[in-house]
């Protein structure tokens, strides 16, 4: 009789999960964690070089990279077909792709507002609409939408982003109601400040010189140390752990919920 220890089962053994925005940041960490927990992961993004590198690092038996513009309806259908061809089925979705723009609401160009809405809101809708029937056919599964702290309250100068993330929370609740009888749980994660490329100063001030960018980073860090009760920004791997929880049996009785992960930011105001 063998005395070799058996590896502990993964929380996502046998699952196939498509993750958008998976080339970097939260999506990358979700893909890596899900694969480590036994899932085969389909990484979807428009950052092809980075996405392919992440998938190659995870390994071809566990990961497939696909180019996907989440606002493209045909692109979603093609991604689903490619995922099924490679792994046979899909029973999980993480709608993680998103964009952030800073602007005073009355100064926001229509094109900018529509871009944020298309990626953050319409992208999530298309993902649900495209993959839900396949998840039903696979016997049920999970959908996790990435909303935001800004989807639970208002934040000045990110009006388009906040509006789109409020919409994602509403979409999550409706999808949960409609898909529960079909064996699909749908939840939303609502991160606060997280250290990802999307939130770095160079993402919204690309023309600034290195010294200015460094001052902006230091200023942002100090701001969040004072604002967030836990005294720091979140890490992408912490968000990934919540996405894992909502995608596995540990959360089997949870659906339709926006779950905030923000270091206590939304809890209230501390007077010092």
SSE blueprint and pairings:
Blueprint: E1 16-20, H1 25-36, E2 40-45, H2 48-58, E3 63-67, H3 73-87, E4 92-95, H4 110-137, E5 141-146, H5 159-179, E6 184-191, H6 201-204, H7 210-227, H8 236-247, E7 258-261
Helix pairs in contact: 1-8, 3-4, 4-5
Question: Could you characterize the architecture of this molecule?
Answer:
With 272 residues, this protein is of the alpha/beta class. It has 8 helices and 7 strands, in the order βαβαβαβαβαβαααβ. It has a 7-stranded parallel sheet with strand order 3-2-1-4-5-6-7, with helices on both faces. α4 links the parallel β4 and β5. α3 (73-87) runs parallel beside α4 (110-137) and α4 packs parallel to α5 (159-179). It is globular, with a radius of gyration of 19 Å.
Number of helices: 8
Regarding quaternary structure, how should these chains be classified? single chain
Measured on Cα atoms, how large is the radius of gyration? Answer: 19 Å
The main pleated sheet reads as: 7 strands, parallel
Q: Based on Cα principal axes, name the global outline.
A: globular
What is the strand content? Answer: 5-15%
Relative helix content: 40-55%
Intertermini distance: 65 Å
Strand order of the largest sheet: 3-2-1-4-5-6-7
Structural class by sheet pairing and helices: alpha/beta
Compute the number of strand runs: 7
Order of helices and strands: EHEHEHEHEHEHHHE
- Low-pLDDT residue spans: none
* Average pLDDT, all residues: 91
């Amino acid at each position: 009789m063998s005395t070799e220890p058996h590896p502990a089962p993964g929380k996502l053994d046998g699952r196939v999960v498509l993750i958008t925005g998976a080339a970097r940041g939260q999506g990358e960490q979700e893909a890596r964690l899900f694969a480590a927990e036994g899932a085969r992961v389909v990484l979807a993004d428009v950052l092809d070089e980075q996405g392919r590198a992440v998938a190659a690092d995870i390994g071809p038996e566990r990961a497939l990279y696909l180019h996907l513009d989440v606002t493209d309806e045909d692109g979603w259908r093609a991604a689903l077909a490619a995922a099924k061809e490679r792994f046979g089925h899909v029973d999980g979705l993480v709608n993680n792709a998103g964009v952030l723009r800073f602007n005073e609401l009355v100064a926001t160009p229509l094109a900018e507002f529509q871009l944020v809405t298309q990626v953050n809101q319409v992208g999530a809708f298309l993902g649900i609409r495209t993959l839900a029937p396949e998840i039903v056919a696979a016997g049920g599964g999970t959908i996790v939408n990435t909303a935001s702290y800004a989807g639970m309250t208002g934040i000045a100068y990110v009006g388009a982003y906040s509006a789109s993330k409020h919409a994602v929370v509403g979409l999550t609740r409706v999808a949960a109601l409609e898909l529960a009888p079909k064996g699909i749980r749908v939840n939303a994660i609502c991160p606060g400040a997280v250290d990802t490329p999307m939130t770095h100063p160079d993402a919204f001030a690309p023309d600034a010189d290195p010294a200015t960018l460094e001052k902006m980073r230091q200023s942002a860090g100090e701001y969040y140390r004072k604002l967030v009760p836990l005294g720091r920004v979140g890490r992408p791997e912490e968000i990934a752990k919540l996405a894992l929880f909502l995608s596995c049996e540990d959360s089997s009785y949870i659906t339709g919920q926006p779950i905030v992960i923000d270091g206590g930011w939304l809890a209230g105001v501390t007077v010092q």
